[in-house]
């Protein structure tokens, strides 16, 4: 038993060591990101410019319009797309819509994008849809000789 304690002591001594060259930042996994809903909080003409931080999956009985159900609980699923605002660095979560979810799946983490909400109207299939305009950083054309 003494050998186990000695190994545990050495292990705990090394437990707080971070690899050389790694830079950590403050992180609070319990942080509540302010959230906004398209068509309710974000109105036609509003613009969101920010760095894509990722998409969070939420499960709740409150999501009455969700078409996806959690396999384990059977509860409705909704997605929250999180952006770090370009101007302030503060985080904002935007509740997903069909088109917005597809666009966020194509974004890379920390990619800067500007999204303009263009309103809700009928799409080509005759269904109501939220429409957006998107812009992202233009990549310079490669130099050729």
Describe it.
- The chain is extended and about 70 Å long.
- The protein has a single domain, classed as OB fold (Dihydrolipoamide Acetyltransferase, E2P) (Beta Barrel).
- The protein contains 2 helices and 6 strands, in the order αββββαββ.
- It has a 6-stranded mixed sheet with strand order 1-4-3-2-5-6, with helices on one face.
- About 15% of the residues lie in helices and about 35% in strands.
- It is an alpha+beta fold and about 140 residues long.
Jot down its keywords:
145 residues; alpha+beta; OB fold (Dihydrolipoamide Acetyltransferase, E2P); six-stranded mixed sheet; 2 helices; 6 strands; 34% strand
Strand content: 25-35%
Q: How far apart are the first and last residues' alpha carbons, in Å?
A: 71 Å
Order of helices and strands: HEEEEHEE
For the record, what CATH class applies? Answer: Mainly Beta
The total of beta strands comes to 6
What's the topology here?
Layout: H1 2-14, E1 35-36, E2 47-59, E3 77-85, E4 91-95, H2 98-106, E5 112-122, E6 128-136
Parallel strand pairs: 1-4
Antiparallel strand pairs: 2-3, 2-5, 3-4, 5-6
């Amino acid at each position: 038993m003494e050998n186990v304690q000695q190994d545990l002591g050495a292990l705990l001594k090394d437990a707080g060591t971070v690899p050389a060259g790694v830079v950590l930042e403050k992180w609070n996994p319990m942080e509540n990101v302010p959230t906004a809903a398209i068509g309710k909080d974000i109105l036609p003409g509003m613009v969101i410019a920010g760095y894509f931080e990722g998409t969070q999956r939420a499960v709740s009985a409150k999501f009455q319009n969700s078409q996806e159900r959690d396999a384990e609980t059977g509860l409705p699923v909704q997605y929250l797309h999180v952006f770090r605002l370009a101007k302030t660095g503060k985080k904002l979560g935007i509740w997903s819509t069909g088109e917005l979810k597809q666009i966020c799946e194509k974004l890379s983490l920390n990619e800067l994008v500007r999204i303009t909400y263009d309103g809700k109207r009928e799409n080509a299939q005759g269904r109501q849809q939220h429409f957006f305009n998107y812009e992202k950083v233009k990549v310079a054309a490669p130099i050729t000789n």
